[in-house]
Amino acid sequence: MIKVGDTLPSATLMEYSEVEGNGCSIGPNPVDVSKAAAGKTIAIFGLPGAFTPTCSAKHVPGYVEKAGDLKAAGVDEIWCVSVNDAFVMGAWARDQKTGGKVRMLADGSADFAKATGLTLDLTGKGMGVRSNRYSMLVKDGKVKALNIEGPGKFEVSDAATLLAQAKG
């Protein structure tokens, strides 16, 4: 499992974007994790799935609300990573009004989740292998802080916790 001091694994996430106004997509587009994180401070939070109750009611809204504070604390980008396809993440981005605040990145085959060791097996609930709920602060591709939730919990991966770590 990934830990503080480790480098993010090589992986490609997908991002669905839209052109403002005409509704034509300009995605899904591949996002090379190593290249996208190089030279930046990134707040990454992972969660089990788009449109799921805790993720939609608490996790994403917290990061949208604290986006300005995180940027003021030196965070260049905020990434939400979930084991969903890019089209679902794009629809969820519209629903959560994340534009300009949080990049909604799809880990459709759970490759990033598996490479970090941050998987959650929800096969028994009909959801397959998903991402565990976590947050991490990454500087130039290296993990500086990592907060992994226990099963069914939402206590340490919230935006306020990561904001305090970014300020520290």
TrEMBL record:
Gene3D superfamilies: Glutaredoxin
Highest rank taxon of the organism: Bacteria
Leading EC class: oxidoreductase
Pfam family, one: Redoxin
Keywords: Antioxidant, Oxidoreductase, Peroxidase, Redox-active center
Cleavable signal peptide: none
Thioredoxin domain boundaries: 2-168
Reactions this protein catalyses: a hydroperoxide + 2 glutathione = an alcohol + glutathione disulfide + H2O
Function of the protein: Thiol-specific peroxidase that catalyzes the reduction of hydrogen peroxide and organic hydroperoxides to water and alcohols, respectively. Plays a role in cell protection against oxidative stress by detoxifying peroxides.
PANTHER family to which the protein is assigned, alphabetical: PEROXIREDOXIN, PEROXIREDOXIN-5, MITOCHONDRIAL
Family assignment from sequence similarity: Belongs to the peroxiredoxin family. Prx5 subfamily.
Identification of the protein by name: Glutathione-dependent peroxiredoxin
Gene source species: Caenimonas terrae
